Amino acid sequence: MKNEILKRLRYSLGKDADHASVYDWRMALSLVLRDHMVDTWFDSTRAAYGTSAKRVYYLSMEFLIGRLIEDMISNQGLETEARNAMKALGQDFDTIVHNEPDAALGNGGLGRLAACFMDSLATLGIPAYGYGIRYEHGLFEQSFVEGEQMEKPETWLSQRHAWEFERPEVQYRIGFGGHVSHSEGRAKWHPGDSVLATAHDTPIVGWKGVWGNTLRLWSADPVRQFDLASFNRGDYLAAGRSEALARTISRVLYPDDTTESGKELRLKQEYFFTAASIMDLLRRFLSDHDDIRALPDAVAIQLNDTHPAIAGPELVRLLVDEHGLEMPEAIDLARRCLAYTNHTLLPEALERWHEGLLGRILPRHLEIIRAIDDSHQAEHPGSPRILEHGDVRMGELAFIMAHKVNGVSALHTELVKETVFADLHRIHPTRIINQTNGITPRRWLYGCNPALRNLISEELGESWVSDLEQLSALTDKRGDSAFVADFHAAKRVNKVALSNWIGQTCDVQIDPDAMFDVQIKRIHEYKRQLMNLLETIALWNEMRDHPEKDWTPRVKIFGGKAAPGYFMAKDIIHLINDTASVINADPVTRDRLKIVFPPNYNVTMAERLIPAADLSEQISTAGKEASGTGNMKFALNGALTIGTLDGANVEIREHVGSENFFLFGLTAAEVMERRQQPGFSRAAIEASPRLRRVLGQIFEGRFSPQDPHRYHGLVGMLYDHDHFLVTCDFDSYFDTQRRADIAFQSQQSWATMALMNTASMGWFSSDRTIRGYARDIWKTRPHGALLEKSA
Ligand SMILES: *Cc1c(COP(=O)(O)O)cnc(C)c1O
User: Fold this and answer.
1) Residue 521 Cβ < 6 Å to ligand 1
2) Span 90-94, mean pLDDT?
């Protein structure tokens, strides 16, 4: 490998070893790792063609991938070789790894799920393509200035992207606007504007390097670089218009997936990548099939949320307008290919587009949506409409055009049936099914936690990495005090490493023997970082009131970004940082309580924090978090959860056992009931002197003395519009935290509980999730055996 790296350095980067920078070395190593994947990747593609296997197409606006070097190395079993080669070349391996930018083409859980799925699809040997957008700028970079969030554009593509192959020959013309002509019963769309979608492929190779799939991301390019005719006529704006449109479409990721933006550009992005993907998969299908009616036997299209829901009308459009099918047959055929994953019940996050806007950008699609809506109405009179009050409702569209609709945790799926799609569920009672989310154990244990990985592998060998349920064998070790001590020691190694990193990045000294209490996720009111902070202040008050008590030392670690336009979330960040300055400087509590908030939470930071966590904060208002996957990463890495009965917490608790989980708070049903009671939050505050005191301190400017009114709005919200019931759950949360304090005092029993978490989390592998999709939705079998069949 050493020679391969030197060769790449010389001939691909044009550098000699004496003058190579860290970047050059990183690129050379990455290119070599990519070379190693290519044969597997070709073999897999050939095997899929050779056996006419059904392909899975995973359409997602977001892929939150993170770094790839370590994944590529460990999945191909090249760890020792790569380390030795870099050492022989006089390079520090870890420095090289940390030079890679995070591919942050996603906001949070939804995009990270898509990335975990890509890893599992390849590991299971299911022929699949991930389709998305190659954003020039991923999720913004966050920094803090005097405690406030600042956003800077993210620039992962400012350097060459090592993993991708650009495919200038794979291009599709994507139209927008214009008009539709009708003649002899046939419609034809004449777009007014168009751009080119160009493919960029990243090979994704699974565990043991047996199978490789493709992540195909589309960039937008102008149809004509520059309209010289317009320019010569003196129309300078028109000359650059199509270029400008093209450049904006794949320019930036929308920095929010929980509120509806209603922006025209967003609709264009959605249509852009969906249309390119549908055209691409049809081309592939037609290259070895003659009968378009066989499409559902060869193609399974999964829509990750409603963002690609225009896939339904687009596929129908191509089948009718280009392939000459009749509308009813086209709708039926499309539906047999399509399935839709719902990710949210938050009403503000359910996409809808004004009919006028959609009709202006996609006039033919609006006609088709009307036809779909009318035919569904004719079959099921009185059913919910796609078009309502001048809006196109993308959830209803996705539902009606899918043969299966899935929720992402058991509780969420039940709520989908009872709330957002209650009426459609009555009409199609077998369409909604559950597929509880999962996480890839390759990244989220094997890769990020070498200390624990090695301990497990010494005990079980390495086959657990692709068969995570084997971890259950560790249950037998709970009485083995030597093993429990080793388990504890592995956690401590990670905590020491994190303490050093926090010392460097946040300039705060923390005690590795304190409880590391971690809440990392997007900042959102429903996720209730605010409740966590209020509890921290309440604890601080009690520590100051009773400094003589034997308090369990704690480090409260926060991480997460707020959407740039989400002012309450930004206030919460500001308050956390303000509070940290006051509390961290208090000589009375300094050795027992610290707050740290390292900026710019991303996948790489998650990989650093999760292995070092003792306590995982999963405290959303019950009924609001669809599943969560952060909760799974923590429990797998031996953190105990403090959490509500929400999302996948419910199933995690069932697996790890209620005695190894700190449960508190109202249930989803109780939340709905409580919200109906007038003045519920004032009543809750009235009943809790502890909470009243904290709110008083914030209101009076105890944490913002230079600007005492800063948090009046925030405190007022808790009194009068506490939509997420922070006040109602506060006392129960505080009491449960004190139970955690006591439990942490016995390190042996805490470590045993932590071990039981790791041992019980096998079911939450995304391999299990993907097997479920393959069995219940796609009707494909995981067949790594395909390779042998075609050989
Ligand atoms: C796993 C993950 C998430 C999702 O976390 P939740 O706690 O489920 O919201 C978000 N961002 C990153 C970087 C992640 O790795």
Assistant:
1) yes
2) 95
Residue 85 has a pLDDT of 96
- Residue 603 CA, closest ligand 1 atom number: 13
**How far, in Å, is the centroid of ligand 1 from the Cα of 557?**
15
Torsion of CA 97, 128, 398, 563, to 10 degrees: 0
Cβ–ligand 1 contact at 628 (below 6 Å)? yes
**Which value, in Å, is the radius of gyration of the alpha carbons in the chain?**
27
Same fold, 51-66+102-437+771-790 and 467-764: yes
Q: What is the pLDDT of residues 427-446, one digit of tens each?
A: 999 999 999 999 999 999 99
CA distances from 35 to 38, 162, 205, 492 (A): 5, 11, 12, 38
**606 touches ligand 1 (CB under 6 Å):** yes
Q: Are 553 and 599 in contact (CB under 8 A)?
A: no
For the stretch 188-214, pLDDT in tens is: 999 999 999 999 999 999 999 999 999
Question: CB of 200 within 8 A of CB of 170?
Answer: no
- Cβ of residue 320 lying under 6 Å from some atom of ligand 1: no
- The answer, yes or no, to whether any atom of ligand 1 lies below 6 A from the CB of 109, is yes
- Among residues 104, 63, 515, 50, the alpha carbon closest in space to that of 288 is found at 50
Cα(628) to ligand 1 centroid in Å equals: 7
pLDDT at 238 over 70: no
Ligand 1 atom showing the smallest separation from residue 605 Cα: 13
CATH code for 51-66+102-437+771-790?
Answer: 3.40.50.2000
CA of 769 to the centre of ligand 1 (A): 17
- Ligand 1 in reach of 602 Cβ (< 6 A): yes
CB of residue 757 inside a 6 A radius of ligand 1: no
Q: Using an 8 Å Cβ cutoff, are 141 and 154 in contact?
A: yes
- CA 528: distance to chain centroid? 19
pLDDT tens track for 456-490 = 999 999 999 999 999 999 999 999 999 999 999 99
pLDDT average, residue stretch 412-426? 97
Residue 540 has pLDDT above 90, yes or no: yes
Q: Whose CA is nearest to atom 5 of ligand 1?
A: 630
Task: Output the residue whose Cα is nearest ligand 1's atom 15.
Answer: 603
Residue 789 has pLDDT above 50, yes or no: no
> What is the CATH number assigned to the segment(s) 467-764?
3.40.50.2000
Residue 210 contacts residue 259 (beta carbons within 8 Å): no
- Given pLDDT bands bounded at 50, 70 and 90, which one contains residue 52? confident
For ligand 1, the distance from its centroid to the CA atom of residue 106, given in whole angstroms, is 10
State how far the Cα of 487 lies from the Cα of 613, in Å rounded to an integer: 13
pLDDT at residue 791, rounded to an integer: 43
Q: Is the CB of 681 under 6 A from ligand 1?
A: no
Listed by start position, the domains of the chain span 1-50+69-101, 51-66+102-437+771-790, 467-764
Residue 536 has pLDDT above 80, yes or no: yes
Distance CA 609, CA 633 (A): 11
Whole-number Å distance, alpha carbon 600 to ligand 1 midpoint, is 13
User: Nearest-CA neighbor of 421 among 395, 391, 394, 401?
Assistant: 395
Residues annotated as part of the active site: 343, 521-522, 527, 629, 633
The answer to whether 754 and 12 are in contact (CB under 8 A) is no
Task: Determine which residue's CA is closest to atom 1 belonging to ligand 1.
Answer: 630
Q: How far is the CA of 365 from the centre of ligand 1 (A)?
A: 34
23-37, 229-243, 270-284: lowest mean pLDDT where?
Answer: 229-243
